[in-house]
Design goal:
The complex is a heterodimer.
Chain A lengths: L1 H17 L6 E6 L14 H10 L4 E3 L6 E3 L2 E7 L4 E6 L13 H11 L7 H5 L7 E3 L5 E5 L7 H4 L21 E7 L3 E6 L18 E6 L3 H10 L4 E2 L4 H10 L4 E15 L9 H8 L1 H10 L2 H8 L4 E3 L23 H10 L3 E3 L2 E3 L7 E7 L3 H15 L4 E7 L1 H11 L4 E7 L9 H4 L18 H15 L3 H18 L2 E13 L3 E2 L18 E2 L1 H5 L1
Helix pairs in contact in A: 9-11, 15-16
Chain B lengths: L1 H19 L36 H37 L1 H16 L2 H10 L7 H15 L2 H15 L2 H8 L4 H37 L11 H4 L15 H15 L9
Helix pairs in contact in B: 1-2, 1-10, 2-3, 2-5, 2-6, 2-8, 3-6, 4-5, 6-8, 7-8, 8-10
The chains are: A alpha+beta, B mainly alpha.
């Protein structure tokens, strides 16, 4: 009993010293069912959230500074002319079940990651990394060597959760601050504090501070709002603007608009020669002047003000200002100017007669835009673009389809004219966008799977992307990708519309919260979070 | 009961007139976005306020009512005609046609019609003007909705086929086609009328379902379905946003109240 009292006193004195109490349960919502708990197979946001809180990684991208920080690797260096990396591993670390962590676990994880039978989405990030060679020059060192150089390789390890080679719990044994303690399908996932977690705070006290994390699987954001206001939830991520405004009126101290996120909305025209569209429409869509005119006719300020209630900003290009290093600050959003749009169209042979725009062959300018049904923000964007284009004599037909029908049209049948969808860049490095920018790529949406670049500017983008992908000097890579962004802004294959702000709500009872614009926003520093004493005691 | 039916009928008539002549109540076009006045409160200019894009709610409600009140009966008429054809011929002719028709009816009834509608709609041409999309939406609903009515019509016709009336007509040498038109059809007309009336509110709700999923009538044309969308989140900004739901409930109730209490098949 005396020993227990002593421990209790020690805990209370620790809490008093840091000002942050220990214990309690953090509660928030996942918006879909997690598809997997295997950190190497993660492909959805819910599983990604769980991986972030449970898996240990060698290197972590700090969500505030966007710099790399040592985690399970205390140091690392790039070797073999950019083809490999040597990691010096942290000692005296154990998995959540007590199994010791060693270099063998890293080797096992990398072997599993590149196992062709596993089809690990994370492995795709390591372009050309299929034949990874693993060496262990010392007991606490691992060297990984890939067949070709991988640009920005270090930050890819932020997504590689280390598995245990020896633990009987296999992928459920975790090196992160928490482990999955219970899963009720359709209802909740409970995480418990990893008793062997290696990290300590500045005072040398154990982390994480909160004992358990309860993740409710809840899609309805209105219900989430009610529960948050009742105090049943401690935080809300990616808050929709209308909920944010309601919450701001009722709990101003709880909401935070973090500024531009990595998420933006964009539209593009189908420029594929294989598309089953009339030749005159393909000619419009392949015309740079036409695309630029449409871009100038869209009032982006209005889109941000009405659809996102001011919690967005007109988008400059493919990279959001939230991505500090790769954002090209010299780019500006396309200016709203219907007169300039009409002038541009006039120079391209279009004529406005009786409020209707006609092309040089007297075809009335009318096209459709497909977007996914059920996304109210996108539906509103489409309605506003419809009204904007009506002002320059273009009739836009808005077509809402279910998501699978859209994917089929934009990737298989190519039977569509233009498309409005969103873009989420989870990875900060442009290397992750190779599958969009290379003309041969399947996600080169406006004209996918080209055998050779259809236009000189696409050939230039191909060259620049390949150059940045094999260059190790970050400044040179940045220069190459800046040029890509400039070409995209000039040629307008994508019309970037709005960059959404990251909106979060954090209960005043949650201490040390320092939400980031980068995902996972409010819980990026989960091990440091603490609950106010009155809440943690409950 | 008759008084309630008359009241419901009068209310429906009044709503139909308001929907046909919306300019009497509001001058704002349903698709005009007053972008400087989003979510405007109720005022003389906007009696129900404006929506999040600054569009006049009353104007959109009246045009949406027009779409539903005109297109749903048209869809009901289409499905009733199909039901009369399939069910009537199956019940009257019997034999292999009856067996084939029953199989077709069972198949149609077993299909998840909402998914079928979504699937069929996804295959339609993309460049449909909004008005055509409204007609297509209700047309599809009508085309896919004939099976329940056909089953009832078939049962009525089977009863009539064995009736003294039809046996006597055939014994007199009257051809089948004439028997069908002159003797059977007048006797199943009350069933068809009841099916027609019962289908209207069902189709109004079907369009609302599709509209709630964002798959109904195309923008900017309003319909009750797409007007209900802001309520989906449970975060309607004010009471006026609930007007489409209230009006839909009133209209659907009125359609049910105007129906006669029983159908007599002689």
């Amino acid at each position: 009993m005396k020993r227990f009292r002593a421990l209790l006193t020690l805990a209370w004195s620790a809490a008093a010293a840091t000002g942050a109490p220990y214990g309690g349960e953090l509660r928030f919502c996942l918006y879909s069912e997690p598809k997997t708990f295997n950190p190497l197979l993660v492909a959805d946001t819910s599983s990604e959230a769980i991986r972030y809180m449970t898996a240990g990684v060698l290197i972590r991208v700090n969500r505030q500074t966007q710099e790399l920080e040592p985690e399970l690797a205390v140091s690392w260096r790039v070797v073999s002319e950019g083809r490999g990396m040597t990691f010096k591993l942290r000692q005296h670390v154990a998995f959540s079940d007590g199994t010791p962590f060693s270099a063998e676990d890293v080797a096992y994880t990398m072997r599993t990651l590149f196992d062709p039978h596993l089809h690990a989405p994370t492995a795709d990030s390591f372009r050309g990394g299929t034949g990874v060679k693993i060496d262990r020059p010392a007991a606490d060192e691992v060297t990984l060597t890939f067949p070709t150089p991988v640009a920005g390789m270090e930050r890819l390890f932020d997504q590689v959760g280390i598995l245990s080679n020896k633990s009987p719990k296999k992928e459920m044994a975790s090196l992160g601050p928490y482990y999955v303690a219970r899963y009720k399908p359709g209802s909740e996932v409970d995480l418990a504090r990893n008793p062997y977690y290696w990290k300590r705070d500045a005072q040398g006290l154990r982390l994480p501070r909160i004992d358990t994390v309860r993740l409710y699987i809840q899609q309805n954001r209105a219900l989430e709002l009610i529960r948050f206001e009742r105090g049943e939830l401690n935080l809300m991520s990616a808050v929709p603007p209308e909920i944010f405004d309601q919450l701001q009126a009722r709990m101003p101290a709880a909401v935070r608009d973090l500024g531009p996120s990595l998420e933006s909305e964009m539209m593009w025209f189908n420029q594929s020669p294989k598309a089953p569209l009339p030749a005159y429409k393909k000619q419009w869509f392949q015309s740079r002047e036409f695309r630029r005119a449409i871009s100038a006719a869209v009032n982006r300020e209005d889109l941000c003000r009405l659809v996102y209630r001011g919690h967005a900003r007109p988008a400059e290009g493919p990279i959001s200002p939230a991505n500090r290093f790769w954002f090209n600050a010299s780019l500006k959003p396309h200016r709203y100017d219907p007169k300039e749009a009409l002038d541009g169209l006039s120079q391209a042979g279009f004529r406005l007669r009786d409020g209707q725009l006609y092309d040089a062959q007297s075809h009335a300018v009318e096209f459709s835009i497909v977007t996914n049904a059920g996304n109210q923000a996108r539906e509103k964007l489409a309605q506003m673009i419809q009204q904007d284009l009506k002002r320059i004599g273009i009739r836009l037909n808005v077509v809402k389809l279910d998501y699978s029908a859209i994917i089929d049209r934009i990737s298989q049948s190519l039977d569509y004219e233009s498309c409005l969808l969103g873009l989420t860049n989870v990875d900060l490095d442009p290397d992750a966008q190779m599958n969009v920018w290379l003309s041969s790529a399947s996600n080169h949406q406006w004209n996918p799977n080209q055998s050779s670049p259809a236009t000189p500017w696409e050939a230039e983008i191909d060259r620049l992307m390949q150059a940045q992908g094999s260059e190790l000097n970050p400044a040179k890579r940045k220069a190459y990708f800046d040029r890509v962004q400039e070409i995209v802004s000039q040629e307008v294959p994508f019309l970037y519309l709005a960059t959404r702000n990251a909106l979060v709500a954090v209960s005043p009872s949650l201490q040390n919260a320092n939400p980031s614009v980068l995902w996972p926003h409010a819980v990026w520093n989960i091990e440091m979070l603490a609950l106010a004493p009155e809440v943690s005691k409950k | 009961m008759k008084a309630i039916r008359n009241l419901a009928g009068t209310l429906l008539l009044f709503l139909l007139l308001a929907a046909l002549y919306p300019s009497v109540l509001t001058r704002a076009p349903y698709d005009r976005q007053f972008r400087e006045l989003p979510d405007a409160p109720v005022s003389r200019q906007f009696p129900l306020g404006t929506d999040e894009l600054g569009r006049d709610r009353l104007s959109r409600l009246l045009y949406g009512t027009r779409v539903s009140l005109l297109a749903a009966p048209a869809a009901a008429l289409l499905s009733t005609i199909l039901a009369a054809l399939v069910g009537g011929l199956a019940g009257f002719l019997g034999g292999w046609f009856d067996r084939a028709a029953v199989a077709a009816i069972d198949l149609m009834l077993s299909l998840p019609w909402l998914f079928l509608l979504i699937m069929v709609r996804a295959t339609l041409p993309l460049n449909l003007p909004a008005l055509v999309s409204a007609l297509v939406t209700f047309g599809l609903i009508g085309l896919l909705g004939w099976a329940p009515a056909a089953r009832i019509v078939r049962a009525g016709c089977r009863t009539l086929r064995c009736s003294d009336l039809v046996v006597q007509a055939r014994a007199c040498g009257i051809r089948d086609g004439r028997v069908l038109v002159k003797h059977v059809l007048p006797n199943v007309r009350p069933i068809l009328a009841a099916q027609f009336r019962a289908s209207i509110p069902i189709y109004i709700l079907a369009e609302a379902n599709l509209g709630l999923l964002g798959l109904g009538v195309a923008d900017p044309l309003p319909s009750w379905g797409n007007l209900l969308r802001p309520l989906e989140s449970g975060l309607a900004p004010d009471w006026a946003a609930w007007a489409p739901l209230i009006l839909m409930l009133v209209v659907v109730s009125c359609f049910y109240l105007t129906q006669p209490s029983e159908v007599v098949v002689r």
